[in-house]
Amino acid sequence: MGRTTHARFPWVNYIVSGEADALMGALCWDILHRGKDIPSADLPFGVFGPAHREAGYPSTSRRDLVPRAAIKNMRDLPLPDFSDYFTELERSLYADRIHPGLPLEFSRGCWWGERSPCTFCGLNGGSITYRQKPAEQAVEEMIEMSARYGLSRIEAVDNILAIDYFEKALPSLTALPKKFAIFFEVKANLKRHEVEKLAGAGVRWIQPGIESLDTRVLKLMGKGTTAAHNVQLLKWCRQYGVRVSWSVLWGFPGESDAWYSEIAACLPLLHHLQPGRTVRLRYQRYSPYHYASGKYGLKLLPAASYRYVYPLSEGDLKDQVYYFEDNEDNDVGGHYIAGDVNRRPGLQAVARGVDAWLRSWYEPKRPILSMRDSGEELTVEDTRAIAVECKHRVKGLKREILLAADEGVPETLLRKRLAATNVRQAEIDAGIAEMTARKLIIRLDGRLVGLPLWHPYQPMPGMTAFPGGYFDRRAMPVGIPRA
Ligand code: SF4
C-alpha cells in the first residue's frame, strides 16, 4: 500500500513501509538537511523516496516483493511520550468527561498466526513474526507509565497476549498494592485458571478471538478453538468478572446457513453470559483469504467504496487498498443477504437471537444461572427467560453429571467413567437427558457443557470501566448533542 501510494501520488515525498520506530529519527534529520534529494542508496531499508520514482523501487523475497522495515527487538523501543496529549486534555472543555487510558504496546505480530494464521486476518501486515517485551519489562513499563500520568487504566494494543506473561507478568501485577485495570487481546483457548489469573492481575477486560459458536465455522477460519470451549470461556469470564469483547463473524466461504440455525437454537440458553455482536466477514489484505484467494474459491476485487476515494486504475487500486470484496458474490455489500430471511434464515435467526440476548443483558435485572453445592445436592437458581424452573435441586447421578459438565467433559469419557462405577447406561441416558431438558447442559462438539456459574461470582466491570478510557456522555451540558 505504501509503495503504491508513493508511486501514484507524486506529492508524497517519503514513505516508510513497515515499522518506522528505529529509523524515523534519523530519517527526519536527513530529510530536514537534504530535502527531497536523498539518493536511494542512502535511504534505510523500507523507505521510498523521490529517487525511487526514477530508478525503480527495490524488491525483496517477501510474498508481495515489497521491502518492509521491522523491529527485531521490542526490548529497545522507547516508552511513548503522551505529555502533549495530557497538556491538551487539561485545557479541554471536556476534561471532566474524558477518562483516559494509556495505550501501551508489549508485543507485535501474533504467535498463533505465525504457525497457522486465521484465514480472515490481515492484522499483522507483513510482520506476523511474534516479538515481545520480556514480562518483567512489561510490568515495569506499566508501573512507570501509570506513575508518570497518574492513571491506572492500561489498554494493551497488542494483537495477542504473550504466553509467558501468565507465569512471569501476571503474578507481579497481582501482587501490586493497587491494581491496574488492564485490557488485552487474547487467544480464546484460555483455561479456567488462566481466566482467574487474569482477573486477579487486573485484566478485567479482554478480547478473545471467539468469532463463532459453531466449530465448523471456526475450522473454516483456522481459529484453533471450538464452540464448546468458547462457551466455557464466556462462562469463566462471567464467573471471574472479566468483560469480553467478541463477535459472531459470518460470511465465510464454504459455510452453511443450516449451521447458523443450530447456533440460533442455543443462544437463549446463554442469556446469563455476556453477549457479542454479529459482524460480516471482510476480506483483508495480508490475510490468507487475500494472498491465497484461489484456494478458497475467491476472486477478490478492491471494495467498491475505494473507487470513490482514489483516482487510480483497477490494477493500482488492488495494490493500494486494505479491504476487498468477492467478485463472485453478487451481494458484495452484504446488506441484502443479511436482511433476507429467505436466503439466510439461519443467519437471520442468529441476528434476532443476538438482539434478544443483548436486550436481556441490558435489562436492570440481568439473567442469572448459578449453582451452589452442599456436597450432596446442587441448588441451581435460574432466571433466564427459557428457565424450566427457577430453582433446581440436583442430586445423585445428575449432580455428578452436572459437575463433570462444568468442566466440559467429553460425553463418551463421562459415560465410560460412570459405567466403570456400575451405573447402568439407561440411568446415564436419563440423567443426561434430564439435565439437557432442564437447560442446564448443552451438547457441543461431543462434549457436555454445564451452563451454571458457581455462586458467588464476580461482578462484571461496567462499560465506563474500559481500560482504554471512556467519554462520559451523560455529563454533556444542555445544547451539546450526544454522539
Ligand atoms: S485473528 Fe488474532 S489470533 Fe488469528 S492470526 Fe490474527 S492476530 Fe493472530
Can you describe what's shown?
- With 483 residues, this protein is of the alpha/beta class.
- It has three domains: 2-55, no CATH class; 74-365, tm_1862 like domain (pyruvate-formate lyase- activating enzyme); 369-454.
- Helix content is 35%, strand content 16%.
- It contains 19 helices and 22 strands.
- The protein has a five-stranded parallel sheet. The chain has a four-stranded mixed sheet with strand order 18-17-16-21.
- Strand 11 (247-250), helix 12 (257-266) and strand 12 (277-280) form a beta-alpha-beta unit.
- The longest helix is centred in the C-terminal third of the chain and has 17 residues, at 345-361.
- It is globular, with a radius of gyration of 26 Å.
- The relative contact order is 0.10.
- The model has no long low-confidence stretch (mean pLDDT 94).
- Iron/sulfur cluster binds next to helix 5.
Question: Topology of this structure?
Answer:
Elements lengths: L1 H7 L6 E2 L7 H11 L12 E2 L1 H6 L27 H9 L6 E3 L1 E3 L2 E2 L2 H5 L15 E2 L2 H15 L3 E4 L8 H4 L1 H5 L6 E6 L5 H9 L2 E6 L6 H6 L6 H14 L2 E2 L2 E4 L6 H10 L10 E4 L2 E2 L3 H4 L8 E3 L11 H7 L2 E4 L8 H5 L5 H17 L7 E5 L3 E6 L8 E5 H11 L4 H10 L4 H13 L3 E4 L2 E4 L2 E2 L14 E3 L12
Parallel strand pairs: 4-7, 7-8, 8-9, 9-10, 11-12, 16-21
Antiparallel strand pairs: 1-2, 3-22, 5-6, 13-15, 14-15, 16-17, 17-18, 19-20
Helix pairs in contact: 1-14, 9-11, 12-16, 17-19
Bound molecules: iron/sulfur cluster (SF4).
Iron/sulfur cluster binds next to helix 5.
